[in-house]
Design brief:
single chain, about 400 residues, alpha+beta, Beta-lactamase, 2 domains, five-stranded antiparallel β-sheet, 18 strands, globular
Amino acid sequence: MLFFTSARDIGSLGAKFVISCFIIAFFTLQSVQLAYAAQFKTRAKQAVLMDADSGAILFQRNASELMSPASMSKLMTLAVVFRALKNGELSPDDKFLMSENAWRKGGAPSGTSAMFVPLNTEVSLRELLLGIVVQSGNDACIAIAEGMAGSEEAFAQMMEKEARRIGLKRSTFRNATGLYHPEHLMTALELAKLGRYIRKEYPEYFKLFSQKRFFYRKHKFYNRNPLLFLNMGVNGMKTGYVKKAGYGLVATASKNGRNLILVINGLKRKSERKSEGRKLLGWGFRSFTSFKLFDAGEVVGKARVWGGTSVYVPLIGNGEVRVVLPRFPANQKLRAQIIYQGPLKPPIRKGDKVAKLRVVTSTKSVNEVPLYAAETVERASMTRRGLDSLVHMAFGWLP
């Protein structure tokens, strides 16, 4: 049984506003596993557990807090390279020079994680990518940055531009390596979103993250992600450490048709990446399940339209509208909001993405599902548009 009420927060004509539908739903879900998110504890100072398919946030702790991401930010370095490869701007066989700057700052003399490419040696992009993914080579990152942008500083600007393009609004980058800089910052939530983006957008390169070993010249490198070597479905992604922030890990895992993304940071000991990561991923797989809220084609709600042939446009999902919910406790209470930028202005075509459904459970897990126009709304006559404007001036937009 679903019960609806409504509320509105309406500004001037054309300004951003929200029409909210609050859904209180009572479901009887079989309780078979651990306690819910409010009772889960982790030693990580920052943490996020995300459902990779839906983007639902299953668990979070200080997830929007800016932190030093260390080598976990190499995921953005790789995202820039993967885009260039996909667009045909680079080839895996392209050669990059190990300059003196890259060698001294990130190679053998640096005392940091390195691929140990000899000075003035040319290396294929294919090898450099493995050097970053498996060994977290700072020299490999700087060599690529210099080869693509002319300098590491210019490449960091490319990283930040790419972050904004894919929707990461707060991340700031000052190098390609993740070596400590006070202005090189990310949030756990944006790291999870980045991991999800790479997994979805670059499946052919995402496979690199599952590689456990890489041999280069006389060196034998083993992936630093400790969860890769456990039998728990982990298939990536990246570790990180700087003294200022502690030990961190981004991990992706797949099990029984479900896919999760984990981010933890601020751990005091290296071993905790393994223990805390294993615990949180295991809990996520055991304690959540997908649940259908609406059938395919079933109207979820409606959005107000200004100056259209219809006052409202009905909203539906792309197929079934499903959310990821905790198995426990039973009788979950859900609070859902239909959110959009509006009032919507015609023409609106059937199938246009115009809103999203945000669902928050009583245990603070968060789902967001895109909503689409169920029918076309054309632009109305000048008389109708004028009447809509008068109604707004007199009463505001009525939900």
